[in-house]
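Lab meeting prep.
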Amino acid sequence: MFSVAVKDHIMIAHSFRGEVFGPARALHGATFVITTEYRSKDLDEDGIVIDIGKAIDVLAEVLAPLRYKNLDDLSEFKDQNTTTEYLARYVHTEVSNRVRSFFGGDLRVVLEESHVAWGSYEAPVGSE
């Protein structure tokens, strides 16, 4: 399996509902380092998994509406706990929608919330 990965980051604010979240139920900030890893059994006719420039641009486009926002205020997250795992799936869906016309392999999205904790979501592009 071949793979290519690109990274970006966002700074957001959000809060959680539920006793399990303890003090994180209050509004707080988070910085996520996001990696999108494209995986394919084969290389394309140019000998690549995906054009790295396109992968960088797509990730930046997906993250732009979230940068420096309070996720609690965004309609797409209404009544949703924007956990690391949930956001990984959200980014996966948004990236998949943008790359499915030129990439058909697997996509893994990893959100690092610190140097010791992260969450991810992985599925074939277009499987949502």
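Slide two material, second protein:
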Amino acid sequence: MGIKSFQGKREVHKGAENAQFLVSDYMTKKLVTFKPDDSLDDVIHLLIAHKISGGPVVNDKNELIGIISETDCIKHISESKYYNMPSDSGNNVAKKMNTNIDTIDKDMNIFDAATKFINSKRRRFPVVENGKLIGQISQKDVLKAALSLQGNTWKK
């Protein structure tokens, strides 16, 4: 006699296994961006006003050229205080931004994006298409995606 399954009929969520949950569906499109010639004091004010920890730096063609973060600003403040120099000593975003930028593709699956966050230990990734900045995905966006997926495909 063969083994029978006593689990009963499995419930199938139609379309859930074929659905694509892409970065472009959850990324932020309206971003606070910075220009390379912005002063660091202006950056600090905007970071505080918008309650963000950093942002992309773009040129006049909206091409991504760097990232400026709270840490970059803190380094500037620390260095200027250490050498007893005024904080507005001509320093701008171009001098302090990080130009080693890791981006993410808008067509990447949200689960692959989550893995990329884990492996890189970054909090956000700019999304670029044809060299132009089109958005940004953060760890918080991935969490929001997980909650919306829970409502569609996971049992509560």
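Talking points for slide two:
The mean pLDDT is 83.
The helical segments are 23-26, 40-50, 70-82, 93-96, 110-120, 139-153.
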